[in-house]
Amino acid sequence: MLSEQSAATVRATLPAVGAAIGEITERFYARLFASHPVLLRDLFNRGNQASGAQKQALAGSITAFATHLLEHPDTRPDAMLGRIAHKHASLGVAPEQYQVVHEHLFGAIAEVLGETVTPEVAAAWTEVYWLMANALVAIEKRLYEESGTRDRRPWEVVERVEETADVVTFRLRPADGGPVRDVRAGQYVSVQVVLADGARQIRQYSLSGGPSESVRQFSVKRVTGGAAAPDGEVSNHLHAHVRVGDVLELSEPYGDLVLDADAGTPLLLASAGIGVTPMIAMLAGLAAAGHQGAVTVVHGDRSPTDHALRADHETYAGKLADASVHFFYERDAEQGTRTGLVDLAGITVPAGTRAYLCGPLPFMRAVRAQLVERGVAPADIHYEVFGPDLWLAQG
């Protein structure tokens, strides 16, 4: 994929670029938002910008893509590209925006690396960039064609359910009364709200309900910030202000964490905290399809009262032909549940299991490591990160 000359140049300069990529992405976003402030107001997640998470994710994706081109020149990292493309499509990213990114990214590279960026170096990294950008444009084009639109659509809230002190579920129907496209269990939608300062911020929320011809359901955890990040703007807005009768702008469903298994394939659905949402949709889909294979359900939470959608978790699992349920709580564990963090020790993981993970990154890392130790093929372990994908940024 990468020309021989460019590959040699990228290989020689990757250590320098990798060492400076954090500063490069910092400069990139500063340049981008100075030239196009509307992007920060109405497209990029301001919370992730404030915490630095988006910068880390961008840095991780660039270096991971370049490294893959060098180590596996005849392939491309489609899993990574697909995950990014689904997120971009849910936001309505357009092909022409990649030229804007190129302008400011390479301006930032020149600012940070100075004379190191010779014409040869610039040409090589430009090739890397457009290989990645064009691949994303192609995937996003296909996703838009499949969904039939790049636009969001108005949906009316028809029900609001307080699941826990910090989680609320919204059920919505199309405000225009039109048809609802099919959704694959595990997918998410982008939700746009207008905040008090006029910003039109967008967030992704996994669909948390079963198959439906007319209703979309998603559940939102109120994000409380701390020293490293502010409170969640959109989650707090939804909790405080959105009621039955209000209208929200939703994208079509996207996301690559979707069930892809035969009726007899053994599955493991592991979640923690609000990562439960796509797992509920998967369980509902499996129950509706009459899945016959073994399904191992694992969930970790702070306490039973913090376990959002617990009744649905148990109900859908109970409808399956062969399901085992394992709940872990850090405190107040009840009879039949376990105390502490999720631990697969003592839990049967059948041969040929396909695993789906969603929750905080340390949780998913730990579960993935245990699954690999138990003989589950890495290619059969799939995950969803809520927010920027820092798995790459952290190696």
Write a compact overview of the structure shown.
44% of the residues lie in helices and 18% in strands.
Secondary-structure element series = HHHHHHHEEEEEHEEHEHEEEHEH
The whole-number mean of residue pLDDT values reads: 93
Largest sheet geometry: 6 strands, antiparallel
Percentage of β-strand residues: 15-25%
- What shape does the CA trace take? globular
Provide a count of the helices. 12
Fraction of residues in H or I helices? 40-55%
Find the structural class using helix and strand composition. alpha/beta
Q: Give the tally of β-strands.
A: 12
Write the topology of this structure.
Blueprint lengths: L3 H32 L1 H6 L3 H6 L1 H19 L6 H14 L5 H17 L5 H29 L5 E10 L4 E8 L13 E7 L5 E7 L9 E6 L11 H9 L5 E4 L16 E6 L3 H14 L5 E7 L8 H9 L4 E7 L8 E2 L14 E5 L2 H13 L7 E4 L5 H4 L2
Parallel strand pairs: 7-8, 7-11, 8-9, 9-10, 11-12
Antiparallel strand pairs: 1-2, 1-6, 2-5, 3-4, 3-6
Helix pairs in contact: 1-4, 1-6, 1-7, 5-7, 9-10
